[in-house]
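Data card: per-record layout.
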Amino acid sequence: MRQVVVLSGKGGTGKTTVAAALAHLASRDGGAVLVDADVDAPNLGILLQPQIEATIPFTGGSRARVIAERCVGCGRCFDVCRFDAVTWRDGVYRIQTLSCEGCAACYYQCPEEAIAMDPCQAGEWYRSSTRFGPLFHAQLFPGQENSGKLVSTVRQQAIIAAAAAEAPWVIIDGAPGIGCPVIAAATGADLAVLVTEPTMSGLHDLQRVADLMQHLRVPPIVCLNKADLSTELADRIIAYCRQEAIPTAAHIPYDGHVQQAMQTAKAITELPDTPANHAMRVLWATMVEVTRATG
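The structure for this 295-residue chain is written out next.
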């Protein structure tokens, strides 16, 4: 089993478009289990049109609650709360759930043990079927945290499913950026496909995510999307990759067929004889070669 995570230092580079194409090609090379690891704003399902088979609640933390029959009104919880979640009215202390951050300072400081920490459902994760194989994805509820923990949960379930099905590929569509969800998606992967674009922000954010992959010891390859938008910046990205010994696996041209594929909820590799399709297949071939060499 080879785990490939598709990342980008910034949003809007075409990461999910690339991930969907790789999922399509992996499904035709022995089979794949797919993961949408962007649990804050998942969108791989827009292209894959998943049919949800199971919905599982995700508990991401706890919220404090006053046990009224034990409370003596000492006000210690009010004093230690740094989020203004504890209120006092008519001689009674209460905790506002929406303001509580679950830090448990009041729980540990209460001399009467009159504070309980109740588990809080922060979101849901799903097991779905798609035309390219099983998809594991999730959605955090608005305002909830612990996205890294949820990504780890979804990814672990995908690995279990891939092992049971003897699927040779796990394709992970990571979140943009370099934060906790990205770390959870990439740690221990066999390869990272870094999708970038020939812009200044694309170059700078590529450097950040490449540094992160070096720290996590995940070998990267670069996919330069919309490569013909700026020859100058494309050359700078290629020079950076050469300097850092990062393979530039594919140059995907700006191709109107990509928009056509998105409008019909298809991967670009499902449209025959398009420039982007051919470039994706070059990326796939390089990805297979690199994972076999490193595996």
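Known properties of this structure: Residues 47 and 265 are 4 Å apart (CA to CA). The chain has two domains: 2-49+131-294, 60-121.

See the next section for split statistics.
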